[in-house]
Amino acid sequence: MTADVTDTRHAPLTGRVVVSLAEQYPGPYATMLLADLGADVTMVERPGGEPTRRHPALFGALNRSKRSVTLDLKSEDGRAVLESMLAGADVLLEGFRPGVMERMGFAPERLRREYPQLVIVSISSYGQTGPDREQGAHDLALQGRAGLLTGTSDVLGAVPTADLVSGVFAALGAVSALVARGDHGDGTHVDVSMFDCLLAWQAVRVTASLNGEVTTGYPPREPAYGVFRCADGRDIVLAVAGEDHQWSALCDELDLFEARGYRTAEREQRSDELRVLLGEALARRRSDQVLSRLEAARVSCGPVKDPAEVMDDEQVQARNMVVRTVPSQRRVVRQPLLFDGEALTSCVDAPAPNPVPPGGARRNDSTRHV
User: Fold this and answer.
1) What 8-state DSSP symbol labels residue 238?
2) Tell me: the pLDDT tens digits for 48-103?
3) CA distance 51 to 44
4) Spatial distance between the Cα atoms of 309 and 315, rounded to a whole number of angstroms
5) Domain total for the chain?
6) Is residue 225 in some structural domain?
7) Please, what is the angle between helix 194-201 and helix 203-210, to 10°?
């Protein structure tokens, strides 16, 4: 099932105007979230187009429901067009390294003086301050430095956590600054460090380290918390996290009666041994049969699905998480929030390429709202 596109005239950010000077992943993801919530987003592209246009699926996923304008910000005309856009904007989101905006003539301090209503959101690898403020880094490098890759060897299929997390925090910062502006009338400069966002995202682990405590992950050493291979070659997930009654039920279903009485502390002490027992028991059973029995026994578990299988999941369909863009009817995943039971998402195709003319600016005014 694919949900119909819904009207955003009464969405939370309807009437808010956002200008985006961000490329690649974090900034476009943030402004996509704002667009999904009703904001009128215009992305500013360099001559030749946003680099992710080389990857149509990625570009389409991150830039739906936006307008675009191609500006040569090295030209006087291009900068003048941007100035006129900022005069009527509520939010400017930029993803340059610190110092670039100043060199282009768009220092946040000046913009705040000339456009006091403007909320400025700056996304960078390490933020606007600190010894590494001017250093750039891609997602995986930030994950490694922030401690997320400890004990991990295969990262080729990893989710771009730094990109996504900083995009979410940037959108949250923009919305928070708009709320604050309603109280005192002035915009705010929101500084989003991708590195900081990763530290905040793993607060439990970081807090333990700060206080001299040993971090062993969550839950600590639980044997039935991980991915296991079944007899049919399919993987399943067990997620028994410190719940003795679930452990007992799991052991009953897998005929591990000698282990059913182990409490949490004892399971943690014997984790390696018990994990081997679980692996052997599951390797003799089909995944569908195991999941059916464990779900009936209310043991936390689930299948390991690939992206195509996820889209056919009955829960995904029941929640109408897949919508179609207009006019192409391309299937995309909607923003996950429901407001009074409604998904206020109007999805329009990502803007077509805009060749820049000699004057330095070209705008794609395709209508955003349905």
Assistant:
1) E
2) 888 888 888 888 889 988 999 999 999 999 999 999 999 999 999 999 999 999 99
3) 12
4) 12
5) 2
6) no
7) 80
Give percent of the chain with pLDDT exceeding 70: 87
Would you say 204 and 218 are in contact if contact means Cβ atoms under 8 Å apart?
A: yes
Q: Are residues 137 and 249 in the same domain?
A: no
The amino acid sitting at 169 is: F
Single out the catalytic residue among 72, 139, 163, 191: 163
* CB neighbours of residue 158 within 10 Å: 13
199 and 83 co-located in one domain:
yes
Angle at 193 between CA 192 and CA 196, to 5 degrees: 120
Confirm whether 312 is a catalytic residue.
no
163, amino acid identity? D
- Phi, psi angle pair for 92, to nearest 5°: -115, 120
Condensed to tens digits (0 to 9), the pLDDT of residues 214-264 reads 665 555 688 999 999 999 999 999 999 888 999 999 999 999 999 999 998
82 occurs within a structural domain: yes
Helix (H) or strand (E) holding 76: helix 76-87
3 state SS of 266 = helix
Cα–chain center distance at 206? 21
Residue 185 burial (CB < 10 Å; 0-12/13-18/19+)?
A: exposed
Residue with tokens 């799991």: 250
Q: Are residues 287 and 343 in the same domain?
A: no
Tokens matching residue 368: 């955003």
Query: Which pair of structure tokens corresponds to residue 115?
Result: 């456009």
pTM of full prediction above 0.90: no
Domain boundary residue, one of 303, 329, 348: 303
pLDDT of residue 4: 41
